[in-house]
Amino acid sequence: MIEVVGVRFKKAGKIYYFDPGHNKLTTDDHVIVETARGIEYGKVVIPNRMVDIEDVVLPLKKVIRVANEEDKKTVEKNKKMAETAYTICLEKIAKHQLEMKLVDVEYTFDRNKVIFYFTADGRIDFRELVKDLAAKFKTRIELRQIGVRDEAKLIGGIGPCGRMLCCSTFLGDFEPVSIKMAKDQSLSLNPSKISGLCGRLMCCLKFENDIYEDAKQMLPDVGERVITKLGEGVVESLNILEKTVRIELEETGGIVEFSLDEIIEEDAVTLPIPE
Predict the structure, then answer these.
(1) pTM
(2) Which segments within 146-184 are labelled E, that is strand?
(3) How far apart are CA 29 and CA 105, in angstroms?
(4) Cβ–Cβ contacts within 10 Å for residue 210, how many?
(5) Most buried among 14, 74, 239, 259, using CB within 10 Å?
């Protein structure tokens, strides 16, 4: 076991583990830590705890110190500088006539680097742009091409459900989403109905899919022959969220709906008919 704290650098960013050293940190504390890209300012989202050593990537970098008021002022100043850098970069992009869309600009805490996030349809030759930016800002420049999902995460917005985007509020990582998940949830396969603002399949299809898979394990399959208290029948459809089964009775041809509770308590559906 090893003691760690979990730190986030963005609102819905990935959580990174650090060695707290002698610091006893609580949720919402702000800390100064060393990362692969330099000294950074982050927020503690997981207080001191012990985890299995297999769950972390060693060696862990240590928390340098708890952030103070001066550090908070530095962060605010960096944000204002980033806004200025954004405007300047837009002008440089137009000057070089580059087919790229600037999404966001970020200074590292120690201002050792400025990171420009952009999207583009293909590869962009931005060597001249980097030279111009380096000459202007007198620091290290990084241009990072991101995908449309990352763009939506950075910008935010309101999804088709009327709530703020999941990716910009609580999803730390993107997970693969497939059209099969939409089929399993009996959703319309119309792209406009199952796509988010980024144009990709909605992330909620993934984290809601587990609920559907668990429910389906409790219910018989569509097309399965079963015996009910009203006679033999075939499963015609399932309502997974309501946990109900519609069965077409062979004797009458009628369709009767049974709830999962009725199936369990009243033995409405028992075993499949043996062949």
Answers:
(1) 0.77
(2) none
(3) 25
(4) 10
(5) 74
